[in-house]
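re: ur question from yesterday

yeah so i grabbed the chain u mentioned. its 130 aa long if i counted rite. heres the sequnce exactly as i have it in my notes:
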Amino acid sequence: QVTLVESGGGLVQYGGSLRLSCAASGYTFNDYAMGWFRQAPGKEREFVSAIGWNGNLDVVGPFNLGIEKGRFTISRDNAENTVYLQMNSLKPEDTAVYYCARGSVRFARPTTARDFYDYWGQGTQVTVSS
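ran it thru and got these C-alpha cells back, copy pasting raw so excuse formatting
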C-alpha cells in the first residue's frame, strides 16, 4: 500500500533552518508529483510547494513569492523515493504541522489544490520560537 512518512520537524529559533523529508513506498515514486502542505492550529491546511514527477517543474505557495521567494525549496530524489522541503529564515508564523502528499494522476503536472493529492503522510511538527 502507499505509505508516506515525514521526518525532520522540530523546534527551531527564529531565522533558523530545517529540512523536512518524506519517504514514499508502495508505488512507483517517480511517476507522480509530490506536494507539501502545512496546517497551523485553528487554520485551514494550506499549500506550500509541489514538484513534478521528474523534478523539472515545481509550484510554490503564495507565501513563497515576492520577497519571500526561495525561502522554502522543494526537491526530490527519485533513486531514494524521497521528497524534501528545505526551509530557511524560519519565522514563528511558519509553525505548523507539515504534510507531504502524492499527486493523484500519473505524470500529471502538480497543482496547488488539495484534492489533486490522494495520499497523505501523518505530518511532522515544525515549531519556530521567537
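noticed a couple things. The two ends are 40 Å apart (CA to CA). also The chain has a mean pLDDT of 92.
anyway ttyl
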